[in-house]
Structure formats: structure tokens, C-alpha cells
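Session log. Operator J.P. requested a structure for one protein chain; no other inputs attached. Running the standard single-chain path with C-alpha cell output.
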Amino acid sequence: MNGHYSATKGIFTIILAAALLLAWGCAPQKPGEWTIPAAPTAVAVPLDPLLLKQAQQELLADAASKEAEVRANAIEGLSNTAPGLATNAVLNGLTDHDASVRFSACMAAGQLRLKPAYIPLLAMMHDPDGRVQVAQRFALHRLGDTRFSRDLEHFASDTDPTLRGSAAQILGLLGEHSAVKLLWPLSQDQVASVRLQASESLWRLGQEVGFESLVGYSVSKQPDEQIIALIGLASRNDPRALPFLHAQLDNYVEVALAATRALGMLGSDEGYALAVKFATSKDPRRRSLAALAMGAIGRSDLQAKLRPMLSDPDATVRLSAATAILQLKVP
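Structure written below.
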């Protein structure tokens, strides 16, 4: 998928990929030289209506999961791939007891410009979680209520680096170039995660300094920073990112799968074989990341690889596979 973030390659799937890696960590050893065969020629396989229905049902079930992380990620998946089905999950998420779910619901409400969410969003003005407050301002701004958007400036200078990072993220997502003056000092922040998020947002806003910074982070000694940088490099339809993404196909498995996914976001199926290989890994985190990579590649002939993953024993793998299936398109 080319261009800026679309509904099916949206901002939240990028956040999901990064969050999964940060939560699980990466393989302790680099696997060595990868031999990645060229991707087979794409075959225009018609999309299976039953499989699409099963994927939608999986996401709806996940939105009601007992696990907060699954609920949060399901809201993201629905908003990006099945927005017509997302309303109830988003509205329920706004009052969820878990802050991560409320955060995802606010982001989805903003992304979808979900009008029924406006009144519930107003009631969240003083949410006990700061990150939720940041996301709530994003949603209100996207719904046309900009009265509280200036609060983002205060969050951007908060003593809590988590809030500074969240503000940097939101400032980029709003797509307004006036945010550059706020993002520049954040790109020099003392905390690496804040600098990285600010760099990604600067690049999203078309600032070359953001691109250059992400290229630097793509060869960081920290795999989690590499992963976020690689996905960030793909946030704009700029072919200059391709060689830097290609260079990371020989890396830790998780980093290589992130590179595969980022290449897919830019319309390249170069990592096709890598995604297929790890779709059957014994490690559920790798299966999940492989599914996300296949979704980014988006080839309809990947249905056969993703179908069994809807029955995976791991909930996150099922969720990732469902999201991926709904991203596939017939060439």
C-alpha cells in the first residue's frame, strides 16, 4: 500500500507492532545470514467471503476479550480494517477500566471521526491516565472541537517522558505543520524513546531531519529502536526508505519481520518468504509479526497462509491474522 497511512495500513497497526516487540523483547542472538528467496509471482486469488467474515468475527470477539491488551488491539484492528463494525467496540472502550483500552478507543474515535463518541470523549477530559488525556485531545481535535488542542503543548513539556512521547506522536498524527516547532525540541529530548517518536512525527510531516534521524535509529544497537524506526521510515511513500529497510532483512528475526512489514507498506513483497517462513514458528510473537507482515504485503494469494492462523491457540496471533486477512487485496 502506497501513500500516507490508509485505513488498512493505519497508524495504530504501526503502534501495535512496536508495542508487541517492546513487550516481548527480541531474540537473544542474531540468527546469522538469511537466505531469502525471491517472492513468487503474485496470483490473483479471489478473496474468500467466508474467510473475511471469520476474520471480522474474530476481531469482534477479541474486542470483548477478558485480556485488556487483546481488547485494545482489537479496537485498533477493527478501526483500521472494518470501520463499519467498530462503533460499539470503540464506544465501549472509552469507558473500559483499563487505560490502554481507553487510549486505543480514543485514538480510534479520532481516526474514524466517530460522531457518537463526542459526548463520551468530553466526559474523559480529566481521565486519571495522562496518555488517555493526550489521545482524548487528538480525538476531539479530529471531531472538530479544537478548544483543548493547545493542551498538547503542555503535555509536550511534561516531566513524564511517557506523556512527552505521546504528545510527540499525536502532534505528528494531526498532520499540521505548525507542530514542527513543538516537535523539534522533542527530537532533542534526553530520553531516547521521546526522540525517536518525535523523529517519526517529523518525517510524517515531511521534515528531512526526521528521515535522517530514523535512518540512524534503523542501525541502532537496540532492536526495539530499530523496529520503530523501520516502521516509521515507511510512514511516507518515499522510495528512499527502501534500501534501509532491505538492509535489515538480515537481522534479528523480529527486526527482519518489521523490515518485511515496512517494505510491504511501501508496496514491496521482498520479504514475502520470510513472513511465510515464520508464520509457522513455534514462537507466538513471531507468528503474530509474520501475520502483520503478510497483511502489509497485502497479496490475496496469502489467504492460504493466514487461514490456519485464525485457529491459533494464541489470541494475539489470531487477532493479527484477522487484521491481516482484512488487509488483503486482489492485484
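Operator note: Residues 1-18 have pLDDT under 50 and may be disordered.
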